[in-house]
Design goal:
Layout lengths: L8 E4 L5 H12 L3 E6 L3 H10 L5 E4 L5 H15 L4 E4 L12 H33 L2 E6 L3 H4 L6 H21 L4 E8 L5 H10 L1 H5 L10 H12 L10 E4 L7
Helix pairs in contact: 1-2, 1-9, 3-4, 4-6
Length: 251
């Protein structure tokens, strides 16, 4: 099967490294024009954009700031004229490193702001835009933690990803008649810089002990599924969650 995304513009958040970088590159290899969002890694984002071809551009935004989320969307639309696919990949996973309530609340708020509120706001902007354009696709990158939970130190991360699942299903149910479809992709442990903090804390044996395959999932194991969902070939799976976690959890 050959997937041709020529003529499609895709905004990928958190695209400067890890899963987001792999997604952006795979989309570009299939012909898509990619808007590469980053928060704090301009050089890495520039490298990803260079790999995505001459039409790719980088866009900076701190997704914890609602105003920055709105500016991001406006800037991408202004640059390309339209967005056809939104991939909400950006996320944070911060362990509670202090027993105080103040620190717990700080981590909770930051995690929910980036992982859930920003995703919801971009989805809101996307559904308005897609309805006016005759349709579009939203792909939200959640986690197996949305279904099986996580370690107590990462409870905010699990809660934020669970919210993304409900958000995605609600969009699928509510906007399908307007040509808007939404999917949830739930990776497990994936070898990225973000996951490395957890691996450093709990050990790689912990990360690999409950998977069914012989190696930890890599970003390039996830990217092809996003390309497929972006293509329109899976629109009747709208609302679905696709597990990519090496058999460690099937919800």
């Amino acid at each position: 099967m050959h997937i041709d995304l020529t003529g499609k513009t895709v905004l990928v958040t958190g695209a400067s490294r890890g899963i987001g970088a792999a997604i952006a590159t795979a989309l570009a290899e299939s012909g898509a024009t990619v808007a590469v969002h980053y928060s704090a890694s301009p050089d890495e984002a520039a490298q990803v954009a260079a790999a995505c071809g001459p039409d790719a551009r980088t866009f900076a935004a701190d997704l914890a700031d609602p105003a920055a989320c709105q500016r991001l969307w406006t800037e991408v639309v202004a640059r390309y004229g339209r967005i056809d696919v939104l991939v909400n990949n950006a996320g944070v996973a911060t362990a509670v490193d202090d027993p105080s309530i103040d620190r717990w609340l700080e981590i909770w708020n930051r995690t929910l702001d980036v992982n859930l509120r920003a995703t919801a706001l971009l989805c809101r902007l996307a559904t308005d835009h897609f309805a006016a354009m005759g349709g579009g696709r939203i792909i939200n990158i959640s986690s197996r933690a949305a279904f099986r939970g996580d370690q107590p130190d990462y409870i905010a991360y699990a809660a934020s990803k669970g919210g993304m699942v409900a958000l995605t299903r609600s969009i699928a149910r509510g906007f399908g008649k307007q040509g808007i479809v939404a999917f949830n992709v739930a990776p497990g442990f994936t070898r990225t810089a973000m996951a490395q903090d957890f691996i450093d804390q709990y050990g790689e044996d912990y990360a690999t002990s409950d998977i069914a395959l012989t190696r930890l999932t890599e970003p390039n194991d996830i990217a092809p599924t996003i390309v497929f969902l972006a293509s329109g070939l899976a629109d009747h799976a709208t609302g679905a969650t696709i597990d990519i976690n090496a058999g460690s959890y099937v919800h």
